[in-house]
Design a protein that fits this description.
Helices cover 9% and strands 36% of the residues. With 140 residues, it is mainly beta. The structure holds zinc ion.
Length: 140
C-alpha cells in the first residue's frame, strides 16, 4: 500500500443542461454546426434558445445552420473566476462576438493573446467535445 500523497483531484467541470428549447442548439454543436433559432412567424433569429419570440411573441420556431464567423464586440480576461474548475484554467479570455448571423454569442477565446485583440476583429466559432452529448463552443 502506497503512502505517497495523491495529487488533488481536478475540480469538476460545470456542464450545461440542454432543455426542450435548447436541445437542437446542443445537437448542432455536437455535430460541428451552429444551429440558431429562428421565429417561424416573423423570421427573426434569436440566441439563446427560448420558447417565445421576443419580437412577435410567437411560440413557433425552427433551427437553421448559421455561419461560424463574427467579429469581436468586447472581451474580458478572467483572472479570478469563483468556480474552482475555471480558476484552475485562469487567466483566460471570454469574448462577446457579434455573429454574422445577427446574434451575439459569448464563449472562451483561444489562440489570440489579449494584447493582439481588437474590437471588430474577425473570429471563428470552433467546437470542443466534452462528453458524447455535450460539445462546447469557443472562438479562435
Ligand atoms: Zn417572431
Amino acid at each position: 500500500m502506497s503512502t505517497a500523497p495523491q495529487p488533488a483531484p481536478l475540480p469538476e467541470r460545470p456542464m450545461p443542461v440542454p432543455t426542450r428549447e435548447s436541445q437542437a442548439y446542443w445537437d448542432g454543436l455536437r455535430d460541428g454546426k451552429l444551429m440558431l433559432q429562428h421565429c417561424a412567424s416573423c423570421g427573426k433569429v434569436r440566441h439563446y434558445p427560448r420558447p417565445v419570440c421576443p419580437h412577435c411573441f410567437s411560440m413557433e420556431s425552427e433551427f437553421k445552420a448559421a455561419p461560424l464567423t463574427g467579429k469581436v464586440h468586447t472581451w474580458t480576461v478572467c483572472h479570478h473566476p469563483f468556480n474552482f474548475f475555471f480558476k484552475a484554467q485562469s487567466p483566460f479570455i471570454v469574448a462577446l462576438v457579434d455573429m454574422d448571423a445577427g446574434v451575439r454569442i459569448n464563449a472562451p477565446l483561444r489562440g489570440i493573446a489579449e494584447g493582439d485583440l481588437e474590437i471588430g476583429q474577425r473570429v471563428t466559432l470552433a467546437f470542443e467535445p466534452i462528453t458524447k452529448d455535450i460539445t462546447l463552443p469557443y472562438f479562435t
